[in-house]
Amino acid sequence: MLMYLRVFKESFVFALNALRNNKLRTFLSLLGVTIGIFSIIAVLAAVDSLKKDIKGSLSALDNSTIVLMRFNFGPSDVPRWKREQFPDVTYEEYQQLKKSLPDLESIAFVLGVPGSSSIKYQDVTSTGVDVGAVTHEFYDIEAFELEGGRFFNEPEAVSGSGVAVLGHEVAKNLFGEPISGIGKEIRMFGRRVTVIGVLKKQGQSLFTGSRDGQAFVPANFARRVFGTKKGSVFPQIIMKPVEGVDNDEFIAMLEQQLRNMRGVKPGEINNFFVNQLQGFADFIDNITGQLNVIGIVISGFSLLVGGFGIANIMFVSVKERTNLIGIQKSLGAKNKFILSQFLFEAIILSVIGGLFGLFLVWIVSIIASQFTGDFEFVLSPFNILIGTIVSALIGLISGLIPAISASRLDPVEAIRTGM
């Protein structure tokens, strides 16, 4: 054990000497490892950060939440031309399911208002507002937090009252801070609307956007404004079954009831899609996993170049120290001692390059986080560990052949060659 510690110490000293005595050569050799580790860990960190942001954006909704619509979240076996013929879900279907579907905890009807909207208060206008038209149950499903006021109730939702709940940023743009817009009238879609609530500040999400820039009105209010013509709005029914209910049985019952409502004959495919958030989360995991693989494969070429650089510097190091190797072996140094010495040196040199790569990722993640608002790039301890291990493995593999060639040198020939 003490021998290996001494070998490690000597190898570390040799590595430092190589860095000092051959600065340009060492820099160029280690640059490949630095770039390779930077590329791989940057990809892993970016994908992990994106995945964290997506999961955080979906955290307000339970994974058991089901979204019923004519579109699907992920890939589908149904041809595109056939999917385009599917009818939109309707407000009447929402009402019927609400009455007849068993084991239903909550259900809401949602309209996707096309494009972004402008909201005006006196002479102040907030543009680019994403307006969501929903029924009152959406408040419970989405688990909103209010900064002030309230969400619209069932009578207001059913009658399509001109009331609105504003996101924090929209309210700030219209009324300034501190926000005191509750009860004030605004204009949207050319109609007078009363502000009855303001949502708490949520922060930006790279994947799903932010509630801060949104506004919510009753679905029936938007139906009167935009109508229900296919393509003008994008309706969906969002529901959550009672906790503990078997999701497969619940979905089977849901599909059967909707098929009956639409008169879909036995043997015909569903003309709607039942999307689960859990399935969407699995789809996201699959996509991020593929991104990881693609990024690692591409970055692997940089590591390959780095490995050749380490191998090159180790071959040169063996040649420069041939005389020293011969003297060590003539004094009784065994082959495994020489082998370990050069392997340790290669690993140390490679790890130094890898640490520089990790340092660059850390710097870039800090800078990137500053420019992306609330989206945070995270360099996790796990990715740091991966980067260190990969760089050590590159050093081990790259230094193996030079170390073996050094350990097999004949001491007499080594001393004669080095003279």
Task: Describe this structure as you would to a colleague.
Belongs to the ABC-4 integral membrane protein family. It is a multi-pass membrane protein. The chain is an alpha+beta fold and 419 residues long. It folds into two domains: 2-57 and 282-418, no CATH class; 105-240, no CATH class. It has 14 helices and eleven strands. It has helices at 2-21, 23-58, 80-83, 91-100, 138-142, 154-159, 168-175, 219-226, 247-262, 277-320, 322-330, 335-371, 381-407, 411-418; strands at 66-69, 104-112, 117-121, 124-134, 146-149, 163-166, 185-188, 191-199, 214-218, 236-241, 273-276. Strands 1, 2, 3, 4, 5, 6, 7, 8, 9, 10 and 11 form an eleven-stranded mixed beta sheet that branches. The radius of gyration is 32 Å and the shape is elongated. The model has no long low-confidence stretch (mean pLDDT 80).
Helix-strand sequence = HHEHHEEEHEHEHEEEHEHEHHHHH
- Structural class, by secondary structure, is alpha+beta
| Average pLDDT score | 80
Count the DSSP helices.
Answer: 14
Give the tally of β-strands: 11
Gyration radius from CA atoms, angstroms: 32 Å
Provide the number of structural domains. 2
Brief sketch in words of this structure:
By secondary structure, the chain is of the alpha+beta class. It has helices spanning 2-21, 23-58, 80-83, 91-100, 138-142, 154-159, 168-175, 219-226, 247-262, 277-320, 322-330, 335-371, 381-407, 411-418, and strands at residues 66-69, 104-112, 117-121, 124-134, 146-149, 163-166, 185-188, 191-199, 214-218, 236-241, 273-276. Strands 1, 2, 3, 4, 5, 6, 7, 8, 9, 10 and 11 form an eleven-stranded mixed β-sheet that branches.
